[in-house]
Fold each of these.
Amino acid sequence: MTTILFEERVVFDFLKGANEGSAQRVNFIVQRMQGLDQSRKIEVKHAILEKYPDFVFLGEEENSTEMVTSGLLVTQARYQEKQLELDRIMNVEIPENSKEIGAALSLGDLRENSEFKAAKEKQGILNTTMMRLTEEISRAVIVTQSMVDATKVSFGTEVVLKNNLNGKEDIYRIFGPWESNPAENTISYLAPFGAKLLNHTPGERFTFEINETKYDYTVVSISGLLV
C-alpha cells in the first residue's frame, strides 16, 4: 500500500482536490502508518500546507480526541463490504490498470493513443476511490445492537412519524451514508433531513424547514433495527 500511496503519488494527487476535512483525515492516517519513513510524513504535511497555509493539524497529542468525534457510524456488514471493495481495488483493479497502461505505452505515439488516455483516466478514478475508501474506513465506528439507543431517534433505529401536515404516517430507518437508500426511506444521519430527526423521542412534536419545504412531525414510536 505504501508503494501505491507514495511512489505513485496517489496520496498527493488526492490532496490536490481534498477539502480541509479530508486533508485532516489523510494526515491523521499517514502520521500513524507504522514503518513509514518520517520524511514521507513530513512531505504530506508540506503538501497540505501548500494548499492551506493556515492549516492546523489535529489528531496529535492533546487534540487527538477531536478526531475521534469525526467518526463515521457504520454497520458491521457495510464495513466488511467496504474493506473487500478496497482490497479488490488495491490488489486486483490497480495492478490490472498498470498492465493496461504498460500495454498502451508499447503502442507508441501517446498523442493519438486512446487506449493510454482511457487507462490513465481509469487510474485517476481508481486512485481517488482508493484514497476515499481508506479515509472512510480509517474513521469508521462499527455500531452493534447493544450500542443502539431506541429511546430516541438515532443510528440503527426505525422511527414512525405522524405527518401533522397531511395526517399520514411516515416510516424512516436511520443509518449512515454507506447504508443510505432514500428510495426505501433508509436515511443517513449525516444528511440534512436525517440530522433533523435525530434525538427526538416518542410523543415529541417538532418542526423544521429544508430548502423552503416545511415539516411538522410527531414521533409515534421508535424501535431498534440491528440484530
Amino acid sequence: MGLELRAIQSPIFSEPFDFTFHAQAFTLLVGSSGSGKSSLFQMIAQVSSLPYSGQVLIDGSEVSQLSIIARVQKVGILFQNPNHQFTMENLFEELIFTLENIGYHLQEIDSKIAEVVQQCRCEAILHRPIHHLSGGEKQKATLAVLFAMNPRVYLLDEPFASIDRKSRIEILEILKELALDGKIVILCDHDLSDYKAYIDHMVELRDGKLREVFQIPSYEMTQVASKEVASSPELFHMNRVTGELGNRPLFSIADFTFYQGISCILGDNGVGNQPSFGLFFNFKSIRGALLGRVRS
C-alpha cells in the first residue's frame, strides 16, 4: 500500500497512466521546468482546479472522497512560497490553530507541539513573528506545521529555494527519518546536489509520462565555469556603517564598496540577508536604522 495513481488522465499528461509511490520511501521527482511537477502535486493533494479523471488512492482510500480534515491527515503539501501557508502571527500560534482544527483536545496540544519542535528542531523560531523569519526559517516553520498534521504523504515542491546548505542537509535528514518511520515523502527540485545519500527512488516526469530513473537526467546537470570579473565603476561606498532591525544589530561594516553589475550577498538562514538588503536600499517594508556614511 502507498500512494497509487490509477488511470490518471489530465491536460498535463500525454496519455492515461498508472503509477505507485511506495510507502516507507523518500522519492525525488525530477523534470524540466513546465513539465507539470507542481500540477501533479496539487492534483494529488486536491488543491488545484486542474481537471483530471482517474483515482488518487492513499492506502486504498480515494483522496477526492475524503473530508477536508481527513484529507490533510492523509496528504500534506509544502508550496514553493511558504508565505502562502501561514494564518497566525508566529509558529506557536500556527501550531495551536492547526491542531485545534484537526481535532486535538486542549490538554493534548502542548505535548504535541513539544514533540513537533523536537522533531523539526525549530525551537529558536517558535515564538518569533513569521514576517521576521528568513525564507529558510519560514520553510522550516511550514514543515513543522505539516509534522503537526502528521499526514501519510508529504509533498514538497522545491522547498530549498531560500535555504542555505546547512539547513538543507538538516531538513533532508528529517525527511529521511520520516520515510524510515513509514511515511511517503516525495520532493521535487531542480538542484539535485546532496540527495544521493537520502533518497530511495528517483522518478522523472517527462513528455507527460512518469517513470523511475536511476541516474540524473542530462537537463538537470549543472555546469559550473569560472569567470573573471572585470573591474566596474563604483556604485556606492559604505564607511563605518551599522544596521539595526528593531533592537537587534544586523551588521557593522567598517569599509565596503558595491560596484556596478551583479553582486551576490551570501549568508546562513536567519543572519539577516534580506533585512540588510532592505536597509542598504531603503525599502519601506523594512523597519530599521542605517547609521554611518554612505556615498553613492
Amino acid sequence: MSTFRRRAVLTAAATTALGLGLAGFASAGSGPTSETTAAPASRTAPVCTNATTDLSIAPAPRPVNHQLITLTNTGERSCTVLIHPTVSFGPDLDGTAQGLTDGSHPTKFTVKPGDSVYAGLRTSPADQQDDGRPNADHVAVDLVKSVGSDGSTTDFGKPRRLAVDDLFIYEPTVTPWQPTAEDALG
C-alpha cells in the first residue's frame, strides 16, 4: 500500500473515530431515547417510489372527518419520503388536499425496510355539513419526487388509487409525513 493511500485510510479512520466519540459525548447524559420507525432523512437514502412502498388509507377513530394514510417501505433498502403525500379525490372532484407545512416538522424522513410513516388527511372541517356535493369513492395518492428551493414540489405523476367509503370532501388538508399515527392525527 502506498504511503499516500495508507495516510488516507488512517485519516478516514481517525475522522470516523473522532465523530463517533463526539456523538457519544453529545448524547451522554441526555437521558433515554425512544426508537421511532422513521428518522429525519439522511442524504444517502433514495426517494421512496411506488415500486418500493405500499400505501393504505383507513378512517381515523378521531379526530372527526379524518383518514390515516400509511406508507410502508416494502423494499430492501431505506428510502426517503418528502414533505407530504399529494392527495386528490374521485370520481368527480377537482383539486388536491392542501399540504400543511409550517416549518416545524422535518420535510423528509428516512424509512427503513418494513417500517412505516403516516399522514393525516382531514376531509372536511368538523363543523361542515354535507351539502349534497358529490362524495369521493377513492383517493389518489402520489409521492413527492423533489422539492424546489422555493418549496414547490414535483410529484412522480403516478398516483395510486385507494378505495374509500363515500367521503364528503370540503377544504381537505393533509399533514406532513410523521413517524407515528398519533403525530399525523395530532
